[in-house]
Amino acid sequence: MTTLGFAGAAVIARFTRSAVLDVLQQPYVRAAMAAGETRYEAIVNHVLPNAAIPIITIIGFSLGGLIGGSIIVEQVFGWPGIGRLLVEVVGLRDLAVVQALVMLFATTMTLANLSVDIAYGLLNPKIYRRSS
């Protein structure tokens, strides 16, 4: 998994840096620091919760790449796993196993998207507040 993780970690690190720098320039962060909060308190209380929304979005998108990439990495390195099993059963035309594995991948992606949506609501309850 390290093979897949390094590429995704670089993207997430760049995006995190960009999101944090954007939020640090917001007036409410400067106002909090002017009101007496330390830099650490301002970052924990104001910057991280507001910068986390786009970061979670990127993590959710990269999960699809991890699932698809696992098929390729397992095949290239000869590692046993679900991705390699999928390639083998496609070659054998075992449609029942192919369907089961595709459903497993689809369910994993659906649950990942659901967890990203739930995380949005936990980080910023205003996202799900109903407006009239």
TrEMBL record:
Protein family according to the UniProt entry: Belongs to the binding-protein-dependent transport system permease family.
Alphabetical list of InterPro entries matching this protein: MetI-like (IPR000515), MetI-like_sf (IPR035906)
Key words of the record: Cell membrane, Membrane, Plasmid, Transmembrane, Transmembrane helix, Transport
Predominant cellular place of this UniProt entry's protein: membrane
Topology term for the membrane: Multi-pass membrane protein
Domain of life where this protein originates: Bacteria
UniProt domain ABC transmembrane type-1: residue ranges: 1-120
Protein name: ABC transporter permease
PROSITE patterns for this protein: ABC_TM1 (PS50928)
Compartments it resides in: Cell membrane
Coiled coil: none
Organism per entry: Sinorhizobium chiapasense
Spans traversing the lipid bilayer: 51-73
